[in-house]
Write a structure and sequence with these properties.
With 429 residues, the chain is mainly alpha-helical. The protein contains 17 helices and four strands. The protein has helices at residues 9-14, 64-69, 90-107, 110-121, 144-147, 156-168, 174-188, 223-234, 238-245, 255-258, 290-297, 307-310, 316-327, 329-345, 372-376, 384-396, 409-428, and strands at 33-41, 45-51, 252-253, 278-279. Belongs to the peroxidase family. Ascorbate peroxidase subfamily.
């Protein structure tokens, strides 16, 4: 099946394990960790590879050595407190999105970018009203104290990948950048267009990070109950839990880093990026509904099925949606796009309060589309210059505000002209 995910020898040479930072990318049980190989990014950025799954959680040990390299005063990604940053610039966000697309083409890091956005947003607690204590999509995951949470192992590599883009676009907040990267990764992997909005405000210091333990685990004693406990706390329902689980169609897991999966399968032995690990699907860099199909069939021992994955077809409520998504990709894409957008907004504080979309305005230089209704409805006030012009023409025919024109004024003129024309024709004849 490797012909379904081919990359050239040259491309492989340009990658290292970090690029394939493609361990699963969902906020459910988190199966990620940093890879040992290095990726040369922009000729100077050296990364560890990571496998990550935004759905799994405390199966990882903190990557202390990597975190120290990103601590205050070190080179690369900084986790020190930063000044308050308000709304992101729409134009810079659009440009950052294009840079993220190029990054995805060369590093195949779709899964870990999805996981980064999910784990920043997934700490949200609907029972806490105050910001940022409630958690959610606020950029807090850039600080070392939160990076060291077990569920976030390896995400330091995602930060390394995005930091050059953040440096380039200084008015983009981390909170927006994390969610932009996550949604773009889904779309570039063949997934649905996510109806995103932006304008998220960043937290300003590590003291504003949430406590550890808010993210889900991969193998709890009661998987279905555990998923509900975590996701209900975020304000999500059963349909959204199952739809978001479908993001496991991306990525792979490595047993030496997460404790789950095989060291290598026929689908991962050749990469892309650093070979190895076990994927949930055959084409683990393609977003579709094969995750549900493969779990339902359970015919391939080389594909990973975690306890929380199996629960989707064992729990009656979850099964209703899982069966539907296995049969209907369009239904899955629709529900996934809505659930992803909802997740990305959890706990966020927007500036402006209603946020903004990157797709509201037309591309620069493109003419505005003609809409007849825009010009045929609604009463508009005349300008003063137009009023003066009409008054002058009105008075030129003998009218005034105090002396309206006679109703037959124009009719008389037309009759006179007609009579003159008739008389002239008679004379000529």
């Amino acid at each position: 099946m490797t012909d379904r995910l081919t990359i050239t020898t040259a491309a492989m040479a340009s990658l290292s394990a970090a690029a394939a930072t493609t361990a699963t990318t969902r906020l459910l049980p988190s199966v990620t960790a940093s890879a040992s190989a290095r990726l040369s990014y922009r000729s100077s950025l050296s990364l560890s590879s990571a496998r990550s799954s935004p759905l799994l959680s405390h199966r990882f040990l903190p990557q202390k050595s990597s975190l120290r390299r990103f601590s205050s005063g070190g080179a690369g990604y900084s986790t020190v407190s930063s000044p308050k940053c308000a709304a992101s610039s729409p134009e810079q966000l659009k440009s950052a999105r294009e840079d993220i697309k190029e990054l995805l083409k060369t590093t195949f890091c779709h899964p870990i970018l999805v996981r980064l956005g999910w784990h920043d947003a997934g700490t949200y607690n609907k029972n806490i009203e105050e910001w940022p204590q409630r958690g959610g999509a606020n950029g807090s995951l850039r600080f070392e104290i939160e990076l060291k949470h077990g569920a976030n192992a390896g995400l330091v590599n995602a930060l390394k990948l995005l930091q050059p883009i953040k440096d380039k676009y200084s008015t983009v907040t981390y909170a927006d950048l994390f969610q932009l990267a996550s949604a773009t990764a889904i779309e570039e992997a063949g997934g649905p267009k996510i109806p995103m909005k932006y304008g998220r405000v960043d937290v300003t210091g590590p003291e504003q990070c949430p406590e550890e333990g808010r993210l889900p685990d991969a193998g709890p004693p009661s998987p279905a109950a555990h998923l509900r406990e975590v996701f209900y706390r975020m304000g999500l329902n059963d349909k959204e839990i199952v739809a978001l689980s479908g993001a496991h169609t991306l990525g792979r897991s490595r047993p030496d880093r997460s404790g789950w999966g095989k060291p290598e399968t026929k689908y991962t032995k050749d990469g892309p990026g650093a070979p190895g690990g076990q994927s949930w699907t055959v084409q683990w860099l393609k977003f579709d509904n094969s995750y549900f199909k493969d779990i339902k069939e359970k015919r391939d021992e080389d594909l990973l099925v975690l306890p929380t994955d199996a629960a989707l077809f064992e729990d009656p409520s979850f099964k209703e949606y899982a069966e539907k998504y296995a049969e209907d990709k369009d239904a899955f894409f629709k529900d996934y796009a809505e659930a992803h957008a909802k997740l990305s907004n959890l706990g966020a504080k927007f500036d402006p309060p209603e946020g903004f979309s990157l797709d509201d305005s037309l591309p620069q230089g493109q003419p505005e589309k003609f809409v007849a209704a825009k010009y045929s409805t609604g009463k508009k006030e005349l300008s003063e210059s137009m009023k003066q012009k009409i008054r002058a023409e009105y008075e030129g025919f003998g009218g005034s505000p105090d002396k309206p024109l006679q109703s037959n004024y124009f009719l008389n003129i037309m009759i006179v002209i007609a009579v003159l024309a008739y008389v002239t024709s008679l004379v000529m004849n």
